[in-house]
Amino acid sequence: MTTLETFTVSGGSSHADAARTCRLLLRTVQGSVARYETDIPVASADWPPEVASAARVLRGVAARTGRVEPGGYSQTGVITYADDQVWSAFVDFAPRAYDATVWNAAGDDIVSLSDEAQSIVIRINHQQYDAIAAALGPQLTAEGR
Q1: What is the pLDDT of residues 19-38, one digit of tens each?
Q2: Cβ contacts of residue 110 below 8 Å, gap of 6+?
């Protein structure tokens, strides 16, 4: 049986806070990742250097295996996980994506990020939850509790 719970991360509403949380989630599930994908919106002047660098790496993947539109919007296509520069770029960039998804070997989407981390859905086990809860501390609260 699957138990679904909704949690809210509080303690700041900046995009930097959401990005840190997304990166924590992605690093926490890393051992369960089989495949992932993201889109890469047109570059923005407010992207930090590490995000712009990650976007360049992912655009290179999109040019080989995905889709690149004339205006600059790109999609990587589905990437098989390897602990490499592409995964690192994905972790750095995913909070800026309009759509980023991570699947496990069973094909379950275990992380789904939308609209520059405005929506975050995760499927995790108890050990992953404990690691995330320990890292976020009192910022993580169950809705309705």
Answers
A1: 999 999 999 999 999 999 99
A2: 29, 32, 33, 102, 103, 104, 122, 123, 124
Task: Please choose, from the candidates 14, 17, 111, 96, the residue with its C-alpha nearest in 3D space to the C-alpha of residue 53.
Answer: 96
Phi (first) and psi of residue 34, to 5 degrees? -115, -40
53-112 pLDDT, tens digit per residue, is 999 999 999 999 999 999 999 999 999 999 999 999 999 999 999 999 999 999 999 999
Q: What would the two tokens of residue 3 be?
A: 């138990």
Q: How many CB atoms are closer than 10 A to CB 86?
A: 19
Kindly state the tokens that stand for 91: 């972790």
